[in-house]
Amino acid sequence: MGSLMVPLPMAAFTTTPRAGNATGGNSTREEKENCVFNEEFKFILLPVSYATVCVVGLILNSYSLWALISRMRPWNATTTYMFHLALSDTLYVLSLPTLVYYYANRNNWPFGEGMCKVVRFLFYANLYSSILFLTCISIHRYVAVCHPIQALRWVKTRHAHLICGGVWAVVATCLIPNLVFVTISARGNDTLCHDTTKPAEFGHYVHYSSSVMALLFGLPFLVVLICYCQMAQKLWRPHSGQEVPAYKARSVKMIVVVVVVFVICFLPFHITRTAYYTSRLLKADCRTLNAVNVAYKITRPLASANSCIDPILYFLAGNLYRGKLHQSLFKRPRNRHALTLAPISQLVGEI
């Protein structure tokens, strides 16, 4: 979901610095007070990227939901997490057509303040619920790989349902203030749908969003790194000169894929958003504001792209899940006893 230009509370902006003033101090102050973000690029980047995410994400997640509901029963803990992850992604991509229209219409929002709040809420709800569900899957894999005996007792489907309910409750509770902060405002004949808040409340919003980022991104990211470092160390440990088993190599590949998703989709967005908010709060010079604003806008589609990447992870989850999804596509009969006869080493290698 993209961001629109919100002027700093101190002044209006223009596209170029004012000329004709030879006094250095006054000139610098006038440049700050008459600076706009050069955002022509976003009126192409954001509609195209959001439309692509909407179409691709809706197809992939709709199929994933159908397969999980109708072809992959009974659920285990992992399929429970996958279902909620796909549900989160689907709710988000359904909101994207309004943003495609908004940015294609050059920051003119015709859908009212309530819908503005809902769309901005859904972006962050998808972002942080995806992070938390991927963290749950990571912890689940860690327990299965590093503590396989205990996993038989700890990893239960009913526990996964309770954890997923807790994830939704935590995300919704943390984002309630966002519904209050987000608003619309008039600019000439256009109506802006702010993705932060009105200028007078921007300082309070930065403190709030930084706290949410630390709780719902910083802490889970640290947990994921610790889990996967421990798993990689155990899985890649040599066994008496023998080659690494196939299930271990497959699990290590999955570890790399999940970490890459975090690094590509989530980390750049949070870094550039922090730089953008800090620059605005500290009233940085116009060139710095434009630079961090461009970087921030570019990383927003990357954050949205997780809605397309998450379903692909299901196919990388392992042979057992790929087999189920393949059979759901071609509607072939499934021997219910096949999974129960799988060796323990293969089951450990799966998500």
Automatic annotation (TrEMBL):
Compartment list: Cell membrane
Domain of life, source organism: Eukaryota
Keyword entries, A-Z: Cell membrane, Disulfide bond, G-protein coupled receptor, Membrane, Receptor, Transducer, Transmembrane, Transmembrane helix
Span of domain G-protein coupled receptors family 1 profile: 60-314
GO MF entry, a single one: G protein-coupled UTP receptor activity
TM helices/strands, residue ranges: 48-69, 81-103, 123-143, 163-186, 206-231, 252-271
Cited InterPro entries: GPCR_Rhodpsn, GPCR_Rhodpsn_7TM, P2Y4
Bilayer topology annotation: Multi-pass membrane protein
BP GO terms, sorted: transepithelial chloride transport
Gene Ontology CC: one annotated term: plasma membrane
Cross-referenced Pfam families: 7tm_1 (PF00001)
Family the entry assigns: Belongs to the G-protein coupled receptor 1 family.
Protein name: P2Y purinoceptor 4
